């Protein structure tokens, strides 16, 4: 048990990999570990597309904002939320599929995240390093057509895998008081009082993150967590997403 919690709490994203290939049998073992994750109503709505090195991978790296490690990682996987085969299941039984529900978008995306995180833990247990790549959603339509994704399927994120060629420090997470609440969000206080406690905890965490960035060996920056988040939230968040998802047959009701 301690080994497992130690492994989980030692996670850090890896963006530089050794030029050592990963055996395909290991990739398949990782995918089997992903498949073993719990899945909403047994829908098994995740399909993984392994993209080998070459022109297609390079195009995806470029579309993801020129993330070089997407190009260079020994293995690159794209996790797709996929309800296409559910349509096939309905056709096999000659029943019309009721699709387009926002609930189905949620369940398929949740399935993908659980599947992927199982892959990640299995990979890290084998000494591999990983980096999720949400950047593939910058131009989700282009990535989808590169991968020939049918309606009712879309790429949720990519994942770089390889043997680490760097050893970054673990990034401190939010304090427990902010992420574990007892019985109600404000824990029997008014929301205003609870927010004051949370702001005090955020200020302490900001200090910790500022020190983390300052002391970190690579890519020094001086920024607190709330600065980082408030900066990010001044920008639009991939505003093309709703139209794209509706075009793929999701989020219509
Ligand atoms: C869904 C998802 C998408 C992400 N997308 C990217 C990405 O496109 N590029 C990148 O360098 N890191 C990406 N990350 C990694 C996060 O930046 C990283 O997990 C976070 O900063 C915490 O750092 P740590 O993983 O080292 O603890 C992503 C993480 C997740 C979970």
UniProtKB/TrEMBL annotation:
Domain of life, per lineage: Bacteria
The keyword Flavoprotein is assigned to this record: yes
GO molecular function, one term: oxidoreductase activity
Database matches in CDD domains: NfsA-like (cd02146)
Record-linked InterPro entries: Flavin_OxRdtase_Frp, Nitroreductase, Nitroreductase-like
Keywords: Flavoprotein, FMN, NADP, Oxidoreductase
Occurrences of domain Nitroreductase (ranges): 9-163
Gene3D superfamilies to which the protein is assigned, alphabetical: NADH Oxidase
The keyword Flavoprotein is assigned to this record: yes
UniProt family annotation: Belongs to the flavin oxidoreductase frp family.
Protein name: Nitroreductase
């Amino acid at each position: 048990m301690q080994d497992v919690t130690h492994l989980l709490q030692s996670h850090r994203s890896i963006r530089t990999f050794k030029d050592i290939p990963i055996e395909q049998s290991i990739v398949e073992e990782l995918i089997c570990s992903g498949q073993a994750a719990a899945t909403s109503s047994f829908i098994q709505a995740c399909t993984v597309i392994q993209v080998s090195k070459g022109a297609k991978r390079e195009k995806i790296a470029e579309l993801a904002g020129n993330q070089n490690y997407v190009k260079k990682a020994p293995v690159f996987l794209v996790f797709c939320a996929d309800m296409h085969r559910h349509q096939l299941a309905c056709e096999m039984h000659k029943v019309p599929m009721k699709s387009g529900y926002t609930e189905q978008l949620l369940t398929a995306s949740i399935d993908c995240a659980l599947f992927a995180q199982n892959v990640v833990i299995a990979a890290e247990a084998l000494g591999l390093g990983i980096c999720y790549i949400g950047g593939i959603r910058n131009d989700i339509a282009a990535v989808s057509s590169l991968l020939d994704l049918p309606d009712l399927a879309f790429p949720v994120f990519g994942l770089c895998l390889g043997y680490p060629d760097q050893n970054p420090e673990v990034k401190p997470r939010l304090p427990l008081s902010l992420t574990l609440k007892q019985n109600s969000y404000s824990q029997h206080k008014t929301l205003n009082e609870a927010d004051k406690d949370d702001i005090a905890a955020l200020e302490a965490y900001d200090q910790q993150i500022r020190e983390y960035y300052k002391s970190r060996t690579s890519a020094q920056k001086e920024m607190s967590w709330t600065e980082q988040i408030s900066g990010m939230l001044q920008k639009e968040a991939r505003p093309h997403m709703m139209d794209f998802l509706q075009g793929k047959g999701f989020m219509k009701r």
